[in-house]
């Protein structure tokens, strides 16, 4: 088959390492662009992975709408199976959160980019239950064409445990049909299109014993507020996207792959049931491009990866009926990676360097800020056999973020400017270092593996800018079963 011969152009000695660990595998259109038509030619083996994990995140180095402490437990299972010309991949994850001391965010995600957020001045502890499900399938149609389809459905709900007892529930459905053409023995072309529908319902005050002030945030310090006994809000979104991918096999050992994708859509927010009151319209645009080169060797691979992205959004104010708030984020990153697999060990080292430019503005408050950041990161992953059936692995990570230039202006501040806008800018533009990694052991059980792993991370801002202090830590303990 020309199609399979060309795309399955190289294999590593132990392809299961790409599943059990984060060892890079030969590039595939599924891996670089999420095109399910590339699943039949992916280098991953058939597998099933099931696991339990417990996470803890805490610290004062955080944005003002983030919880002070996050405790979460999750169950997940995923796998890949090939059945003739078909390849099917699926994933299910249930995650339960117990968040402490979250303020100014009574929605599912107050940091999603949509500026129209419900809030109150109390804050408190939240209980959340979220479920993620996704299925991807690809089928070889003939020697030169494959088709694919991805379906993802996320849902969840959460409630704060104190008055005015805000509550949310959301549903998020996306469909992605795709195709992949083998143009010649060396060239291929892939495309996918995506439709996504989002819905979030908010309630407040239904089980409260007091009449609080409800804040309707509308941008960088812009808001209106009023007493509320009980109220409902509905946020509906429609999103569209598309992508084109191409690749060329330069020779037996080198493969060049490129991808570009675009997304755009909007969310409409309305309050009330009998009579709906507009709460704002948010529109967003995103594009992303990637270019990667693989060099295959008999014992591993080398990769050079260049990526760039841009995301922008703006909000139409429900009172002024015009765009009042907006933001842009642009990023470019270069990554160099090399791994090596031997009979009894495997190693991988990677380094990334990137530049990010962010801007935000609010016309009514004459507030705007800009941040230029440089970020570097290095990972070193090693896997070493121990005695008998045991294998140890470790991956230390070191990173740093530095802002050579930043600017902030708030000419017409409101009472929320020093509480939300300035602290958020200070954290987002802070210089900080990050130290972390993962370590654990695998135990072979005939044709399966059992893993116990610990992951940790420490973020520490450097002193001297806006008095940003404290730290942020993350720890996770997981048990996974691979078959």
Give the helices and strands, then pairings.
Layout: H1 2-7, H2 17-20, H3 29-33, E1 47-58, E2 69-83, E3 86-102, E4 116-119, E5 124-140, E6 145-160, E7 167-182, E8 187-204, E9 213-218, E10 223-227, E11 231-249, E12 254-271, E13 277-297, E14 300-316, E15 323-341, E16 346-362, E17 367-385, E18 390-410, H4 417-428, E19 432-445, E20 448-461, E21 472-482
Antiparallel strand pairs: 1-2, 1-21, 2-3, 3-5, 4-9, 5-6, 6-7, 7-8, 8-11, 9-10, 11-12, 12-13, 13-14, 14-15, 15-16, 16-17, 17-18, 18-19, 19-20, 20-21
What report would you give on this structure?
The structure is a single chain. With 483 residues, the protein is mainly beta. Helices cover 6% and strands 65% of the residues. It has four helices and 21 strands. It has an 18-stranded antiparallel beta barrel. A three-stranded antiparallel beta sheet has the order 4-9-10, with no helix packed on it. The longest helix has 12 residues, at 417-428. The two termini are 29 Å apart.
What is the helix content?
Answer: under 10%
Mean pLDDT: 92
Binned strand content: over 45%
State the total count of DSSP E strands.
21
Spell out the helices and strands N to C: HHHEEEEEEEEEEEEEEEEEEHEEE
Given helix and strand content, the structural type is mainly beta
**Roughly how many Å apart are the termini?**
29 Å
Provide the gyration radius in Å: 24 Å
Please name the defining characteristics of this protein.
about 475 residues, mainly beta, 18-stranded antiparallel beta barrel, three-stranded antiparallel beta sheet, 21 strands, disordered N terminus
